[in-house]
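Lest this sound abstract, we think one record worth quoting, the chain in one-letter code, the fold tokenised, each line plainly labelled:

>
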Amino acid sequence: MTTSLPPSQAAHPGLRLRSLMDSGVVAAPGAFNALVARAVRKSGFQAAYVSGGAISVAAGVPDVGILSLDHFARIVREVAGGSGLPVIADADTGFGEEEMVRRTVLEYNHAGAAGLHLEDQVFPKRCGHLDGKSLISIEQMVSKIQWAAKASQDCSDGAFIICARTDAKGVEGIDAAIERAKAYVDAGATMIFPEGLHSEDEFALFADAMNSMGDHAPYMLANMTEFGKTPMIGLERYGQLGYHLVIFPVSTLRIAMGAITKALAELKATGTLEGQLGAMQSRKDLYELMDYTPGTAWELPTDR
């Protein structure tokens, strides 16, 4: 497993996240804007995640790689700044080939992220829990990871986490996915994200295979998305299966949109939202979340 590093508020967020993961499995709820990120922190979570799918649909487009690197980096900056937490961010396929992968690492690091994950799909990519995906070659993905790892060294002395996501399980099978993941670790990835696994047994098999790499064994990321191919598995169980970080990528957006849709239906039907008042965040609660007192100058916290 990667060498433990001492925690420090002043340390690079990638080092802070490594320290947390060395102490136990970490939950990273998805935050699609800074306000949600503040709620993640206030709820006691120690890390946050920025989902490309959530960024995309919040901008009114599907999750097929339409938005620019600059758009993604802006949201990463807002979430990292709004929460003060170490943030792992989705970078899809890297916004292009190797040169763009390097730029993505530099931009995300500058935005305050702890790290990012790159996936081995062709462009335009598809949601990891959909069928019909296609993969780039192992050699091409290895080259992207090598460029990302070098960029991490150049901008953060390697503190910025390079996570390699493989979608190969649903395309080529789990053995091929493990083969790819090992090649990505050898190329410089310090975390592996096996996407679209179907059972606890598959998660355990994958983690065991990565642990067999000894001193080069990577951190392991699990995606606990709803309505996908993965069954609902609890955080503690993921830790037992060998995973260090569990993301809940679109959960907050789904909850918010479920509530919004219900409220809009009531407003359309009745002409009032009086029946929804109990489900709303009050003005007082919003101000508390923002650490804001009306009439008092508001200062941006120093740990953001």
Summary: The radius of gyration is 19 Å. Residues 257-289 form one domain.
